[in-house]
Amino acid sequence: FKNFLANQRDGRIYQGISGLTNTLRLMHNGIVNLPSSNKPFSENVRASLIPDEGMIMCGTDLQGIEDNTKRHYIYKYDPEYVEEMKVPGYCPHLEMGLLAGLLTQEQVDFYKWYDKEKDAGKKDFTEEETKQFKSIKEIRHNSKTVNFSATYKVGKATLSRNSGLSIKESAKLLEIYWIRNKAILDIENDLQIKTINGQMWLLNPVSKFWYSLRAEKDKFSTLNQGTAVYCFDLYVKNMNKLGIHPNFQVHDEASFNIIPENKEKTKELLQLAIQKVNEELKLNVTIGASVDYGYTYKDCH
User: FRET pair for 65, CA 20 to 30 Å: which of 30, 205, 224, 281?
Assistant: First the structure.
């Protein structure tokens, strides 16, 4: 809030760009690293960003983009695994908890049931059902931390520190992860890398760009994150061509103001924009984009 107040001009915050990461992701300033609404004391941070009078805010982001680009690369080496992940209701984080013995199949089934009923508008859950759901959700969160960080070569000590799991639990989860995701190592072995004046460069087969590779352990992270950024940048390019110009963007999400009457038309244009991305790239997976509306940024993201 202090930063917003210090940098506002006539009631507006302007997002800037301070550079690029090695995967060509924009490094923002002004509006960046906003805490999620479930963090302590952060409920109104995102809610303080509002559209112009008489307008609503539209937010769109690429759904699970880094997970989808990972599936694209894995497909060549382990198509059966990718097909499993395409089954409706599949959740890699619940699967990780199940394989690690942190969850039972009954708990996984219960979580999916509760989540589906909640999305459908059910509110009359018993106190015990809600308590059980929250307990499983915490385990799922830890498994999610493993799935994302293990992909990029986290060690057991760092994983333990970041997740709150014990060293032993972290080591077990990492072991299971790499048995399940051996294809990532196969992908790394087939990447095209060259060294110029002591600097390694990695060729991305989707974008056709050469990316700065800082260390051997960063091969897949550079490949996958660079691909995700490229997908999002194409999405934003298509938005602009269709007349939709974001006010600001953060990682894989963009936001802009529209008049309420244009909600359906805007959604159609955004669906067309992401369709064009899929048609151009022809990945082994289909990239999807969510579209949400609200009167504050919190409502959209």
Answer: 30
